[in-house]
Amino acid sequence: MENIEALEKIAKRLRIHSLVMTTKAGSGHPSTCLSMAEILTCLFFHEMQFNPRDPQDWANDELVLSKGHAAPILWAAYAEAGIIPLSHLPTLRLFTSSLEGHPTPRMKWIKAATGSLGQGLSVAAGLAAAMKLGRSPARVYAVLGDGECAEGSGWEAAHSAWHLKLANLCAVVDINRLGQSEPTMHEHDIDAYARKFRAFGWEAFPVDGHSLPDILAALDAARQTSGPAVLLARTIKGKGVSFIENKNGWHGKPLKDQELQAALEELGPMPEVDAKALVRRPPSVPRPAPAKRFRFKRTDYRDKTATRLAYGQSLVSLGKVNESVVAIDGDVKNSTYADKFFETFPDRSYQSYIAEQNMVGLAIGFSAKGFVPFLATFSAFLSRGHDQVRMAAYSAANLKIAGSHCGVSIGEDGPSQMGLEDLAMFRSIPGCVVLYPSDAFATEGCVEAMAAHRGLAYIRTTRPATPLLYSKGENFPLGGSKVLRSSRSDMAVVVAAGITVFEALKAYEVLKAKKIPIRVVDAYSIEPLDADGLLKHSRACRGRVVVVEDHFPHGGLGEAAAAALAGSARVEHLCIRELPRSGKPEELLDAYGINARAIVQAVKKLTGKGR
Amino acid sequence: MENIEALEKIAKRLRIHSLVMTTKAGSGHPSTCLSMAEILTCLFFHEMQFNPRDPQDWANDELVLSKGHAAPILWAAYAEAGIIPLSHLPTLRLFTSSLEGHPTPRMKWIKAATGSLGQGLSVAAGLAAAMKLGRSPARVYAVLGDGECAEGSGWEAAHSAWHLKLANLCAVVDINRLGQSEPTMHEHDIDAYARKFRAFGWEAFPVDGHSLPDILAALDAARQTSGPAVLLARTIKGKGVSFIENKNGWHGKPLKDQELQAALEELGPMPEVDAKALVRRPPSVPRPAPAKRFRFKRTDYRDKTATRLAYGQSLVSLGKVNESVVAIDGDVKNSTYADKFFETFPDRSYQSYIAEQNMVGLAIGFSAKGFVPFLATFSAFLSRGHDQVRMAAYSAANLKIAGSHCGVSIGEDGPSQMGLEDLAMFRSIPGCVVLYPSDAFATEGCVEAMAAHRGLAYIRTTRPATPLLYSKGENFPLGGSKVLRSSRSDMAVVVAAGITVFEALKAYEVLKAKKIPIRVVDAYSIEPLDADGLLKHSRACRGRVVVVEDHFPHGGLGEAAAAALAGSARVEHLCIRELPRSGKPEELLDAYGINARAIVQAVKKLTGKGR
C-alpha cells in the first residue's frame, strides 16, 4: 500500500489540528481525538467514497461519529479533505461557527447530532437500511467510543443491524481504555468486546488502532461480510503526546499553551501532504425521488372507531401516495395498528422489536436520507426514547411519532401501560408538533398535517373506540382547534382533547338542561396551541375556562392553556392527580375526575351556579 | 426429588388460576402465564426462601417479575403460598384490588412496579447489590420474557451485575418464542441467548422450561456460580392448552367462557396439594438499621462555588451521618462531583458506567431494601432514564437524582450536553420533588431537604461557579421560595431560579438606577412550587410577573408559575426559545434572552416604562 506514508502524514496533521484547536477554544477533548487519528485517516482518505462538493450525493458513504466529543478531529478531517477551509478550524466552539463542541447538522455534512453517547449505531443502522431501501451502493461507517458500549442502546442497534442484515454497515470502536472519570469496564480486553459483538451476530475484527495497514486490511475484510462488521481498535488515549498518553484525568481537557508547545515539539513539524488528492469520489448513482405528496384518500368511517385504528388506516393511505413513508415498530404493531402498513408495504416496514431507543435512532437515519419515518408504540414507552427524540430535534430530523394507549382510558392494564406524561415530554422538545385527535376523521386529518410538516411531530392515540364527531376529508391544520358547541351566552369554555372531548360533550348536555350553556373546544393541536382561539373563547365566556385532559398535571394541555391565557382567565384544570391503578376505563375517568361529572362540577364552581 | 409430584400439581393449579382469573377479568395475558408455570413453581415452592408473614424480612429471597404482564400467575403463586387468600384471585384487575394488571407495590410483596419491559434485571441487580451491602444471605431472582431481551436496558443490567460480581443474582428467561405481534428475533434459538449472556460474563444454563427436574437442577447449579447466573428456559407459550400452544395471535387475550371450559377440561380437575407446606422459611438474620439522620454538618463556603460542587460536598456530609446513603455514577462523577462521595465511601459507591437506565434501575432496587440512593449524571442524560424514573414513581421508590450541567450556561460543549427539558421531565413525574438551587448554601439546604423527604426528588445543578447568596445552615424547605429584593413600591416581580437568579439581581440594580424597583424571588423549589408566595408577590407587584429560566419554554418554571397565577397576573416568560449552539455561557444567556439585559427589557415592557 503505497499511500501509507501519506496517510501517516495526514494522521499527524489531524493530531496537530486537534491539539491546536482545543487549546485555542479553551475546552474540548483532545486526548479522545488523538486515539482515533489513524482510524479517521483510514476512513476519510482510503476507505470511504464521497463527493466532497455535495453532502447529499446519493453515492456518498456516510459517517456517524457516535463519540461526538471527538468533534475536533472530525472537523479537522473535513478540512483536510477540502470540504471546509483549514482556516475555519480555529473557530471551533465559537458562537458564530458551525464547528460546534459536538457535531450538529449546522455543519452540512453531519447527518445526525451526536454527543449523547450510545446513539450513533442506531442512527448508522437507520442510514444503512435507508440506503439499502433507496438502492444506494454506498456504505455507512460509525465510529464509537469504548465507554459508550455500556449504553444498552448500542446493543439494541447491534441486534437490529444483524436482524436487518446490514452488510453495508461497518462500526469502528475506538478502544482507548479510559472513560471520563476512570478506566472503562473492559479496559483493553479486546476479546470482551469481540465476544459481545459476535454474540450479537456481528463479524468482529480486532486491530491495532494505530497501525494503518492493520486498519486498512480490516476495513477491506469488513467490506466482504454478509452482515454488519465491527473493527475493535486497540488504541491509546492521548496517543502521540507522551505526557498524556494512556493517563487517567485527561478526558475533556485541552492542553495549556505551554503543554501544547511541548506536545507540538514531540509531534514534530506539520507534515506536508496533499490530502485532498486522496479523497475517493464515487461513481454517480440515481437518487430516489423526494417525498412530495401528503394528501391521501380519506376513509369513509361509519361507526365508532379507535383513533389508533384510524392511525393505522391513515398510514396505509398515506403510504399509497408517498413512497418515502416507512414504518418502524417495536413489536406492538397489532396494538398501534401500524400492522396495516406492515401488511400492505412489507418492503418499507421495519421491525425493531421491543427496543424503543433503537426505533427512534433508526428513524433519524431514515430521515437523514430523505425518507419520512413513522414510528409507533405505546405512548408510555416512548419515554424510553426520550433522549433519542431530544437528539432528533438537534438533528433537524423529520420524525413522525405515534403513541397509542394514552391515559387512564386504557383501563385494566394499569399504570405502567398508561401514557400520562407523553404530552409533557413531546411539548418539551423544541419545535415538536403535538397532536391529539378525538375521532377517526380527526386522526386522518392530523396524520396528513403531521406528514406534510417538515420536522418532528407526535400524535397521541386512544385505545378504546370513540364516536365520530367530524366528517370525511375535514382538515386539521397545525395550530388549530375546533369549536364543537357554542352560543352567545356561554358561561364557560371547556377545553378538551382526545377522550375528554366526549366527556365535555356529555357535560354540555347536562349543563344545558340546567340552563348553563358552555362552549366546547377540541384542542387537537396541543403544540402549536391555538392560543389566539383560546383567548377569544375565554373572553367570550367571561374568562372562565375548564381544561380537562387524560394526563398528569404538569406539562400537558392544562399548563399550555394556562400559559396562553395567563392574566386573562380563571382556569380549572382537571387531570390525573394521583398514581392511577387498574380498573375499567369509565371507572378511572370518574375516579380521577376527568369525566362529564367532574366537568359539570368544575363549571358550576367557576360560574357559581349550583353546588 | 420426592417433591416433584407435588410441584407438578402446583404448576397445574397455577395454570388453572391464571386462565380462570383472566377470563373473569376479561383481559390479561394467560398464554404468557402458562409458559412459566413450572418456572414459578420451582422458584416459589422449592428454590426460594421467604417468611410468608413478612415481605420486609431481611432474610427473604426476592423475586422481580420483569415480564410484568404475567402478573396473574404471580398473584396465583402468592395465593398458593398462603400469602394472599385464594379468594382474592378473582379480584384481578378490579379497581378495588391490589392485584393489578401489572405488578405494583399496592400488593405488599412487590418491591418494584414492572410492566414496562426490560427494566426488571436492573432492579434485581440493585436489590442484589443492596442485599450484599446489608449482609443479607438471601438471593434475588428475576423472571424475564424473551421479547424484552431486545431492550438495551437489560444488557446494561447484565454488564452491571457482572461488574458488581452479583453471585446472589439469578435470572430466568422464559423463552416462549412468541412476542406480542410476531415471533421474537431469536425464536427458540436458546444458543443465541446463551452466547449473549455468556459474552456479558454470565453463567448460562439452558433448560427445558417445562421440566421441573431440569429447572431445579439448573437453579441448584446457579447457586454455585461466582457471579450472576441465568437459566435459559425453552418454553411453549400457552403450554397446557392445546389450541393456544405455540400459536401466534394469543398474546394478551383471555379465553372466552367456552374456550375456558375446553381448556379446563384439557387440564383436568384442580389437583389437591398443600402448597403452603412447601414454602421454605429462611433462618432469621439481623437487618441494617433504617435511615434516620438527614441533618448534616454544613460547609463553610467562602467564595463562589459551583452548585454541582456543593452537591458533591453535601453528599459526603450526608453520608457521614447516614449510613443508608449510597451513590451511583454513570462515569461522570468528576463532573457531577459525586466523586467526593466515591472517594470517602467506596463501599457505598457504585459505578454503572455510561448506562443511565441501569443507574435508575439499580437505585430502585437499593430503595426497595431501605437504602437512600443518590444518582447523578448530566441533566441532559437523565432523559435516557425517563421510563425508569416513571416506573420508579409507580414503585414508590425513594430515589434522589442529581442532574448537573443544566441549561445553556454550560457553554461551549453545545446543545447535546445541555439539560433544557429536565424540569419538564421531572415535573411530569407525579409526586416528584424538583429543586434548583442557585448557590452553594442553597444546594446544601436542598440536599438536606430532598434526603429527608421520602419519595422521588430531583436536584438540578449548574456547571459554572456562582456567587454566594445565602448563609451557612440556612434551610430550604420543600415548597418554599426566597425573596432576595423587595420594597413596598415594587413594580414587578422577577421569578428566577439557579443561574438566572444572578441575572435577576443584576437587572435589579440596573432598574433601581432607573427608579423602577422590582422584587426578586428565588423559586428554588420548582415542585412543589410556592404558589401562595408567588400569588402574594404578584398581587403586591401589580400583577406583573417576569419568569426567567435556563430551560425550554414548556413544562418548566414558566408554565408552573403561569398555572399557579392563572387569571391574576401578566406573565412575561424568558426562556430558551430556539435550538441553542456552542458558545460562551454569557454569550448564550444573552443570545437566548435570559440575562439581565433581557430581564430589564421584560420589566420595562410590563411596566410600560421606557424602551
What does this structure look like?
2 copies of one chain form a homodimer. Chain A has 611 residues and is α/β, with parallel strands linked by helices. Chain A folds into 3 domains: 4-274, Thiamin diphosphate (ThDP)-binding fold, Pyr/PP domains (Rossmann fold, 3-Layer(aba) Sandwich); 307-460, Rossmann fold (3-Layer(aba) Sandwich), CATH 3.40.50; 482-607, Rossmann fold (3-Layer(aba) Sandwich). Helix content of chain A is 37%, strand content 13%. Chain A has helices at residues 4-25, 30-34, 37-47, 71-80, 120-133, 152-163, 190-199, 212-222, 257-267, 307-321, 333-336, 339-344, 356-368, 386-394, 422-428, 440-452, 499-513, 531-540, 557-565, 585-591, 596-607, and strands at 62-65, 140-145, 169-175, 203-208, 229-234, 325-329, 349-351, 372-378, 400-404, 433-435, 457-460, 482-485, 493-496, 519-522, 525-527, 544-548, 570-574. In chain A, the strands form 3 sheets. The first copy, chain A, has a 7-stranded mixed β-sheet with strand order 7-6-8-9-11-10-15, sandwiched between helices. A 5-stranded parallel β-sheet of chain A has the order 1-2-3-5-4, with helices on both faces. In chain A, α6 links the parallel β2 and β3. In chain A, α3 runs parallel beside α4. Chain A is elongated. Chains A and B meet through α6, α7, α11, α14 and α15 of A and α6, α7, α11, α13 and α14 of B.
